[in-house]
Amino acid sequence: MGGWQLAFIGSWQSGNWSSVTSSDYLFGNPTLSGDQQLVMNIFGRTQKLFFRGDFDPTQATGVDLGKLEQLVAVDRSQRMLRPLGPSFNNKLPFRLADGTIRFTTVADMLNWNPRNFFLGPGRWNEDLSVFKYFDLTERLKVRFTSDFFNFFNHPIDLAPNTTTGLQDLSRQSNDPRIIQFGLRMEF
Predict the structure, then answer these.
(1) For the chain, which terminal residue's Cβ has fewer other Cβ atoms within 10 angstroms, N or C?
(2) Closest Cα partner for 63 from 144, 171, 169, 148?
(3) How far apart are CA 147 and CA 161, in angstroms?
(4) How far is 11 from 44, CA to CA, in rounded Å?
(5) CB 1 within 8 A of CB 27
(6) Taking the model in full, what pTM does it have?
(7) Which of 160, 176, 177, 182 is CA-nearest to residue 49?
(8) In angstroms, rounded to a whole number, what is the distance separating the alpha carbons of residues 143 and 72?
(9) Burial track 112-131 (b if 16+ CB lie within 10 A, e otherwise)
(10) Quick one: which of 23, 34, 131 has its CA closest to 81?
(11) Is the distance from CB of 92 to CB of 118 less than 8 angstroms?
(12) What is the DSSP secondary-structure string of 33-92?
C-alpha cells in the first residue's frame, strides 16, 4: 500500500504589462478596476471588458447597456481609445498656403501611447505526478507514473484585444487537463 510518491510543480503569475494598439490614440486612462469590468455577449462570444477600448457598445447583449455606454461611448469621437481625424483614419486636415485642405497622416511610425501601462490577466497552473517503484526481482524494478498536467483543469484567460479592450472568455490559452501514464523498467 505504501511507497507512493508525489511531485508537483506550479507557476503563479500576476500578469504581463501590456499597452494598447499603436494605431489608436489615448484620450485618458482606459484602465478599469475589477468591479468595473463587465461581461457581455458581443461578436458572437462571451467577452469581458478589460479596458475602455474602441468598439460599438450597442452590439452587446446580456449587459446593462447604460453602464457599458458610460465606459465606452456610442459616439466614437468621445471614446478613450480611437484613431484620430474626422474619418477615424489617423489623417488630420491641414490648410495649405493656397487655402486648400489636405488630409495628412499624423506621425507615421510614431506611437504616442504610453508603453506597457496596464497589467493583463493573471495566471496560475499546477502539474502533479504520482509514482511508485515495484521490485519484481533483486535487479528488476518497475516504476509506474501518473502525470497530471493542469491538474486543477484551471483555464488561463487570453490577453485582451489591444484595440477593443475585450477579453474573449470562450477560449483559453492553455490546454485542459492532460493525464499521462508511464511504465519504466530498470535493470
Answers:
(1) N
(2) 169
(3) 34
(4) 32
(5) no
(6) 0.78
(7) 160
(8) 58
(9) ebeeeebebbebebebbbeb
(10) 23
(11) no
(12) -TTTPPEEEETTEEEEE-B--SS-GGG-BSS-HHHHHHHS-SSGGG-SEE-STTTTSSEE
Residue found by looking up cell 457599458 in the block: 68
State the pLDDT at residue 104: 86
> Rounded to whole angstroms, how far apart are CA atoms 124 and 8?
13
Phi/psi for 69 (5° steps) reads: -70, -20
Structural domain boundaries of the chain? Answer: 5-186
10 Å CB burial of residue 99 (0-12, 13-18, 19+) is: exposed
What integer best gives the mean pLDDT of the chain? 91
Q: Which three cell numbers stand for residue 89?
A: 483614419
pLDDT per residue as tens digits for the range 26-54: 888 899 998 999 999 999 999 999 999 99
141, β-bridge pairs: 135, 186
Phi and psi for 70 in degrees, rounded to 5? -70, -30
The Cα–Cα gap between 158 and 142 comes to: 41
HSE-up of residue 183 (Cα within 13 Å, Cβ side): 3
What region, left, alpha or beta, does residue 152 occupy, with left being phi > 0 and alpha being psi -120 to 50 degrees? Answer: alpha
Residues composing the chain: 187
